[in-house]
């Protein structure tokens, strides 16, 4: 084990004995956190990324993972910044562990009438929802391809499949991310890198929903809202699939959902 | 435990302590057999169905499952026969165990130029690939709905998503089966019945392939052909998914596949 | 011109100078009638088919087409009957004109909970919505392929793309018809036969809608309901497309539609 | 008619009697040129846009349209520049004619392995293929919505539907453009603005293909390559569709195409 001063100053632990690193971009919300936690429980070093301004939330998540006896590194990074993403992956690979699993989980859900959608918003949603995913995918692929193994998982949404009213920016970003996942899967599958796209189709039991949906407790009691831990189990399952039968795309929605 | 003379004469065992029945229509080929075996290992009584003329193969499969200490019933039935399917489900429910899992796994893959496709072939492929699936789905739903639980799984194929050259009959049947799965999922999800459709996109390590693909051993050695057991694990996974995050559709293909 | 006693007894006119025959299966409702009329106006002999029990409606349609100075033949036939369909096409080809355009326009829209869907209904909807389409497609292809030209058009619906609640039978039939159209297009395109699938996504200004939708007049006044004549123009357009740029699938819906 | 000094200096003619303006972004290649020409023949003033460095090509196209007695304006503009696009639309609306038809036809087809795709390329392809389309769509919508009419057409490609190997950037841009078209169609349809997406699936008889495909003359002779004029006819057809039966999406491919 060697010491390493992470971006937010805490000492990170690199263990020889871990299964490798699981890098989660968008570890800030409930889903990303649950995914990171689930892979940490599987023995991977959770490398947690969200934008620097939310660094303290990231530290909290890292602490929670460590409290279970697992390994986590808080690595605040602007995922839309190409140089920063290259440096992030280099740091993890050289100082923490080989990236065995890379998860892209940035949402960027906005809804505006087309006439009120500014170029700034349209671009920013794409940078968060597509460009950052491309950077993660490419940098992960560069490291995984020579090793001949790895898993890259992209979180999709209802808007990955359907351009609904007011969703020109968000659906644009999610459609592009799905295109990326398909293209990478076709290219990297034969290199033994498993690329999958998970379509989360419904409300997630997240901070935003808890603060904005009045009947959220009722929904949760009825299993009527997506549980982040349940979502996370599917990410771990995808990573563990036999390579004779890999899934590229699956959807996830609550049993009660009207779709 | 009570004794019960099954259709092929052997004594079937009904146990109070099992998790219930897993009914597999199309248990004759390698995939259906592996699915039945996987659920038997999970504690379900495997109810194995294929057409009566293949009854001895069915007995062999049942024996193989029992040899592992699990429970299996050989129930040869013509799945295209409405009365026979109603009687089959009634028999299982009254004499074996409640059907907790119903799997439809009949293939019916044929390829003919449109001009050479007879009405008889077109109809038969639909009867095997769609109508039998409808009968299973409906009879299972009738039993599961009052209990408020259950899982119904349909095996799809590449031809479920794309009507390729020469596949007017086969793709017709598989498209219709996918429509059935979607329609049932939307209707039965809110009744806590999980309906899913699995798109198997590639060659399976089955008897047909072993007899017709020259380099099958090479493919298997490279994990380049779908393993029936790996497929089966996904069926069990779907049954065990948290209902806060159910999958309706996923694809399965070997890592090397060109798609 | 030669005389020929048609199935309902009237004398049919065969002209050497027509552009050929346009066979419309399902010419009974407003859409099929409008399509037949539109091709008749283009100079094709409209060969009108619906089931024999609606023979008088067919005669009315034929009269309406003739009243415009165009040619129509009422040919009541059970489109689900393979022998009858073979005989129908033989009769048209030998006694009327070569079939240049074949249109399949049978609907068969029903909605039942899965548990209440009888095997009889499920089968009948498929026979009307898929099997009859297969018979038309195959018989038309047999005649068109040796001539190296022709157009075959299939009418789809919302249920061609989505298996909604209660639509296991109807969506099953429409999905299968779409599979047929795709498969035939891939096979017959290189034989210079244009196969297309039109997804009609919305209410049509038909007798059923006029009798069941209270605000139909208001909808029509606002162009908020699909006009059969507008639909028909798209069928003619598809037939007239340059073969350097053929459309296989398009959707049609009113401007106001919520989709 | 009033005189107006256009961006490249030539005098543009504004006629009171035209049907309005047809703005074509990406009028540089053969397809965009053919579309502009087709709408000019219908009586629209063709407003031709491609990037300023290709201004002379644009002048040539404008001359060719004028040589037929129709109206064209060469308006070289960087379509990725929000301010420039706002100014372009303002100029057309105030100095030429109301925009009745807006066509987005920028391609940006590139293919790179994921590992060799630079951030610069990924971003530039999106800016050309998606962001510019968004700017056109939004600015057109702003002008059309108060008038309660208009047509906005987006050119798609095979990569709009499928993320093929090496197409992470191009498919990303085309998927996003399709999302935009869907979202705008759902929002603007009820405002009587027809938004459609045309999937061009095959090689077009364009300068690039003529210079790179050896057997292009043979293909053209056999109608085996998409004719720009044939494509253009479909754009005009979409604009002229009855609003009781609007098409949102159609595909175009040569009759011989293997798809």
Strand percentage of chain A, roughly?
15-25%
How does the helix and strand content of chain A classify structurally?
alpha/beta
The DSSP helix count of chain A reads 8
**What proportion of the residues of chain A is helical, as a percent range?**
40-55%
Write the element-wise H/E pattern of chain A from the N-terminal end onward.
EEEHEHEHEHEHEHHHE
Description:
The structure is a homotetramer of 259-residue chains. With 259 residues, chain A is α/β, with parallel strands linked by helices. Helix content of chain A is 44%, strand content 18%. The first copy, chain A, has helices at 30-41, 55-67, 82-96, 119-147, 168-188, 207-212, 216-221, 228-240, and strands spanning 2-5, 11-14, 21-25, 45-49, 72-74, 99-104, 150-157, 193-200, 249-252. In chain A, the strands form two sheets. In chain A, strands 5-4-3-6-7-8-9 form a seven-stranded parallel beta sheet, sandwiched between helices. The longest helix of chain A has 29 residues, at 119-147. The N and C termini of chain A lie far apart (49 Å). Chains in contact: A-B, A-D, B-C, C-D.
Quick overview of this protein structure:
Chain A is an alpha/beta fold. Chain A is built from 8 helices and 9 strands.
Describe this protein with a few key phrases.
44% helix, alpha/beta, homotetramer, 259 residues, seven-stranded parallel sheet, disordered N terminus, 9 strands
């Amino acid at each position: 084990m060697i010491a390493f001063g992470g971006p937010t100053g805490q000492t990170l632990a690199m263990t020889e004995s871990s299964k490798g690193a699981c890098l989660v971009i968008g570890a800030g919300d409930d889903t990303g956190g649950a995914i990171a936690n689930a892979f940490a429980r599987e023995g991977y070093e959770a490398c947690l990324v969200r934008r620097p301004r939310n660094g303290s939330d990231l530290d909290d998540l890292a602490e929670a993972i460590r409290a279970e006896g697992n390994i986590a590194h808080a690595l605040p990074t602007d995922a839309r910044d190409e140089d920063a993403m290259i440096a992030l992956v280099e740091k993890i690979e050289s100082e923490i562990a080989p990236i065995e699993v890379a998860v892209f989980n940035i949402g960027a859900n906005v809804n505006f009438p087309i006439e009120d959608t500014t170029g700034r918003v349209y671009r920013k949603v794409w940078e968060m929802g597509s460009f950052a995913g491309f950077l993660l995918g490419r940098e992960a692929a560069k490291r995984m391809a020579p090793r001949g193994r790895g898993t890259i998982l992209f979180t999709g949404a209802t808007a990955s499949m359907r351009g609904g009213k007011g969703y020109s920016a968000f659906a644009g970003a999610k459609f592009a991310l799905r295109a990326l996942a398909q293209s990478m899967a076709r290219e990297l599958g034969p290199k033994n890198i498993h690329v999958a796209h998970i379509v989360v189709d419904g409300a997630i039991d997240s901070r935003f929903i808890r603060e904005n949906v009045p009947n959220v407790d009722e929904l949760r009691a009825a299993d009527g809202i997506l549980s982040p831990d349940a979502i996370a189990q599917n990410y771990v399952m995808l990573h563990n699939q036999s390579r004779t039968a890999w899934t590229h795309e699956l959807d996830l929605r609550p049993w009660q959902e009207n779709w």
